[in-house]
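Rather than argue in generalities, we reproduce a single protein record, letters for residues, whole numbers for local backbone shapes, just as it appears below:
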Amino acid sequence: MTAESAGAASGLEIPCIPSGTELTPEVLAEQETRFIKVLDQLLPRAHEQGVTLRLIGSLAFRIQCPDTKYMEYDNQRYLTDIDFVAYGKQIDKIQDLFFELGWTENQNVLRLFGHQRRIFYHPSEPIHSDVFIDKLRFCHDIDFRGRLEIDDRTISLVDLLLEKLQIVEINRKDLIDIMVLLSQHPISTSGERKGHIDGTYLARLCGRDWGWWRTASMNIEKTAHFAGEYLQAEDADRVRRKLDQLAELIARQPRSLKWRLRSLIGERMKWYDEVEEVDRG
């Protein structure tokens, strides 16, 4: 697959890879290097200014999974942007940070969604950055208030997993991100632990909210189904074992009254929010 064909399939131009270039591991690693250089301009400056800015998305998975990111290269998983979550109380400082580094801002997004999301454009690289404020608001909300300090560069490992599990119409690239994360990191059954995915946090969320449970369970099943197609046999078996562990934790979690009442309706009523496309032009 070339950058041109991949971009045509997704409807997006692939940054930092010339059109027509084959998406080899070497090309994808070079693209990652250029993205990391941009990231390394932003995060140290944010730290200096006392701003809590945490990376999400595909680049965050690469950073957190150095031993298993080869799976992304093998599956021609390219990068598209550098996205963050930040606290709303610091958004003015974050805006100033981007402007000081020469980035510009999407004024339409600022006008329509500025209390939830901002989009900035790099001054020379074809890279943009979405900054989500306090929450991710897609098929299901992920609330980051009080959680951005768990890790120092990216959102926490379980929040990275939730970022993908909340997608109702999940696609290949998101399934691959889940596989890479689960292959690298063990599951914690006793709360937050450094270098572990907090399975307890995930199970509790699914035990409170039937909609979250439905979508997460559906995506755990899909990931298990496609693991053998996307990964080598040993890697696929390792991922399936982690998925079984997550499914067991979710199944053992007590259900709230709200969960039980909503389960009576089931899929007769839509249990997720429609995702509204944002014009980045």
About this structure: The first strand starts at residue 53 and ends at 56. The chain is about 50% helix and 10% strand. Residues 3-268 form one domain. The mean pLDDT is 95.
